[in-house]
Design brief:
This protein is mostly helical and 228 residues long. It is built from twelve helices and no strands. The longest helix has 18 residues. It is globular.
């Protein structure tokens, strides 16, 4: 968080709204990871306002995707679905395939949060070719993770195990700590369905401790809630 705050302060000094907006977006990501959703929304909304003022249409839509992801964590999945669909359609028209992939991943998460597994499955299948073609390793892993979550919520949850393990391995290789922990959370959630309760609870306890130590309070909270 401090790094992004410093970047924001520096950008304000040189009066560069685009850089300030980027710093605010990064600050929003950091607050969201920590689990401070109120501060995250404030940062994202400030970033979006600046990007709209500057006429940065694509960058503004990217911030809207971040806000949509945040809406899911706030329990407003219907709002997230609406925003993600809007962004996905905009990026599709503009042929911004990586951004469309990011928006589609959030859309899938929103549909899963609303219990619409079949619709999430359709969106996941429609987005597969974007994921295969993307050269952005972070986006590919995020999409692989949400795709595995679709399988996790299906009638055959065990089919998600291998894909989730692969996401953990690749995220660790690339240094994407948040993705790695999120995939481990999904594996622990799978354990609650296919392993003895004591085993699953111990995995969640270890994950909660690890996530908290690494500054990912949101994932730690989810792990704690899954043990309750």
């Amino acid at each position: 968080v401090s790094t992004h705050q410093q970047a924001k302060a520096t950008a304000v000094e040189v009066d560069d709204k685009g850089v300030v907006a980027s710093a605010l977006a990064g600050l929003g990501d950091a607050f969201a990871d920590r689990g401070d959703l109120v501060a995250a929304r404030r940062s994202y909304e400030e970033s979006l306002a600046l990007r709209n003022q500057a006429g940065e249409k694509q960058a503004a839509a990217e911030t809207e995707i971040a806000l949509a992801r945040l809406s899911i964590e706030e329990g407003r999945a219907a709002d997230a679905e609406t925003a993600a669909r809007k962004c996905s359609e905009q990026f599709h028209q503009e042929r911004q395939t990586d951004d469309e992939l990011a928006a589609r991943a959030v859309l899938i998460e929103a549909l899963l949060a609303r219990g619409q597994q079949a619709n999430a499955q359709k969106e996941m299948e429609a987005g597969q070719h974007f994921a295969v073609k993307s050269e952005n390793s972070l986006l590919r892993l995020r999409f692989a993770l949400v795709s595995a979550r679709v399988a996790l919520t299906s009638d055959h949850p065990r089919s998600s195990q291998r894909p989730l393990e692969q996401v953990v391995q690749l995220a660790r290789l690339h240094g994407f700590v948040g993705i790695e922990l999120d995939a481990q959370l999904a594996l622990a959630q799978l354990a609650t369905r296919i392993e003895p309760a004591a085993t699953a609870h111990e995995k969640l306890r270890i994950l909660e401790k690890d996530a908290r130590a690494k500054g990912f309070g949101l994932i730690a909270r989810k792990a704690a809630a899954a043990r309750a």
